[in-house]
Predict the structure.
Amino acid sequence: MARNVTTQRKIITTSAAWTIGLIIFFPIYWTILTSFKTEAQAINDPPLFFAFNWTLENYAIVQERSDYMKFLWNSVVVAGGSTILGTLIAIPAAWSMAFVPSVRTKDILLWMLSTKMLPAVGVLYPISLVFVQFNLLDTRGGLVVVLMLINLPIIVWMLYSYFKEIPSEILEAARMDGATLKEEILYVLTPMAIPGIASTLLLNFILAWNEAFWTLNLTAANAAPLTAFIASYSSPEGLFFAKLSAASTMAIAPILILGWFSQKQLVRGLTFGAVK
Amino acid sequence: MGQIELKQVTKSFGDTQVIPPLDLIIKDGEFTVFVGPSGCGKSTLLRLIAGLEDITTGHIEIDGKDATDVVPAKRGLAMVFQSYALYPHMSVRKNIAFPLRMAKLDKAEITKRVEGAASVLNLTDYLDRRPGQLSGGQRQRVAIGRAIVREPAAFLFDEPLSNLDAALRVGMRLEISELHKRLETTMVYVTHDQVEAMTMADKIVVLNAGVIEQVGTPLELYRSPRNTFVAGFIGSPKMNLITGPEAEKHNAHTIGVRPEHIDVVESGGQWQGTVGLAEHLGSDTFFHIHNTGLADMLTVRAIGDVSLRHGDAIHLNPRVDEIHRFDAQGLRIS
């Protein structure tokens, strides 16, 4: 029997949802708003919501002072590269864990997840030393590898749970039909798991795009992505909230737009398997 | 050619041995059915032949060549799964063409064979549909089509009809039998349904707990079951198995009489009882008979509609020459 939902109840839950949504969105909204203020208006007390002189000068200054396109390109390469590399490694890994599990598969999965519980700073020294040794500091290639490694457990976990949903008989049929392991993964498993793989790619692209610890610690000028671009505006010379906000807005805009267009895919991907 | 030979094959999962050492020869062109209750190891045995499971010890030979360590793709066998296992993201055409594509055949040959198989299986109008847009019976045909285009050494069927409704099952049963007559290729068919086994098989292999109880033609199994397990499993309704003084009269530990070998008589039969449930099928009537003093319940088949109702007294005469005798171990006494 359907549950009886009263109008009053509907109003309460709807407004609660909107309130929570707005609270979560507020910092982004405030950043975007501040980016259009002058520095003086940005730190005005009481805070100014609408009644101020809208200006684009912060964007002009930011663009003049730093090469936005270079940072953007670094972000695209690092986030995209680490996601693609991670997926190429994770698909066969998740295949073997989902379809030919050993006694220890569950342990391996948990152990992989446990690496995400380690504070990143705990391995800062070893990784920095490795980077120095192999001349990887401030290179996009080095960053791609590190971001791939830190996101790999999540990619494997997500793909593993999607692959678990695929009936193993279909893969066995492919094997009987003469497919090699490569053909089985390429022609049968991957096309069937496309929705899952797409949302995994998307989520990891966003995670890598927003990653700030390693990108700030392992880059200087050449490979610095947008996170470094933002950080360069919280400078010791003083607080320039309006410029910082303009830089932040420029940094998050691409990923915000990507997220907006793919939200349906993302939600489906993240709740996949919850309801059969 | 498709002779399959199993030599001392065993299979264990961990410490549990599901198939004790087993020998079996499936001759070229034969329609062999593995039948047995669920959990008897029949599907495992089929998967061992397919190569989808590794055998623990022993050898499998296909056409005289050792195939024990050959991967499924290279055994030259085609399999039809219970769930059909079609590729949901491919059209019917691509599903059927898949094994040919894997075999790297040229395009013209693939098209020719796919269209040939489609016309044989009445699938020509559905070639561009996805499996999700087909009915159960059509999906089953696509699965069979995917198997026949390869021209395999043998077909393996794993309970292919159990997801279909009763009417469709009878139709598909005939289609598969006809396919076998036409192709004359070895077929190995797994089912738990003894009616399917009896109607389709050239040779039935009755399995119980991983052990072969008997191998023979349907009528051999029906006429001379080797033991009480086969006697009870083959034939529908089940054979009546009677122990005690009545069996001792025939110098046996157990005697078996099929329901169709007991005649209902007006009076003075050898056995008497009361009618419990009566199942009227029109052509036949099955009586479940209690209080005979022989077994908990006897099943008797009467031809046509016999007007005996619940609680009526009934007189029965078993046909003496149709009584099967078994010893204390359940083995047939000839």
